[in-house]
Amino acid sequence: MGDGGRFPASDGVEIRPARMDDEERVRGFLAELSPHTQALRFFTGLGDPGASMVRALLAVDERRDALLAVCGDTVVGHAMSFRGGESDVEIAVVVTDDWQGHGLGSRLVRRLLRRAAAGGARTVGMDVLGGNRKVLSMIRKEWPGAVMRVSSGTVEVSTKIDPG
């Protein structure tokens, strides 16, 4: 996929493609997430994340993409996309508790969607827990035309990707 370069930000956070040698950094990142943040992203607590889960979060191929937000050598955010499903691409994002509320999740989403659009994706979907008010508010603000369907405690979101 295009847009493979690194873009450091003024806050010292670099958003870059995930690599397989990021396994230990991602394992540490997952372990540092609060149980609440784990539940908002994974819809359950993680316990000790296994090697197969960590590898799945790092997988990049013709159907999957993964980005990391890194501050120094520490992962502070993760975003991934998967081609397939009802939308051209399904996405999921999580930011460590200390970095939430600073726009890092939005930066990750924008970068991930630019990469997906460059690969031909025109629609995006995501599942959000109904209680995740911050993310649902961000979706309403960023994507006012998004379709939201409530289903079993989650909100299924779908919208068009703005290729800009």
From TrEMBL:
Q: Which Gene3D superfamilies match?
A: 3.40.630.30
PROSITE patterns in the record, alphabetically? GNAT
A molecular function annotated in GO for this UniProt entry is: acyltransferase activity, transferring groups other than amino-acyl groups
> Mind telling me which Pfam families this protein's record contains?
Acetyltransf_1
For this protein, the record's InterPro entries field holds: Acyl_CoA_acyltransferase (IPR016181), GNAT_dom (IPR000182)
> Which residues does the UniProt record annotate as the domain N-acetyltransferase?
13-164
> Mind telling me what this protein is named?
N-acetyltransferase domain-containing protein
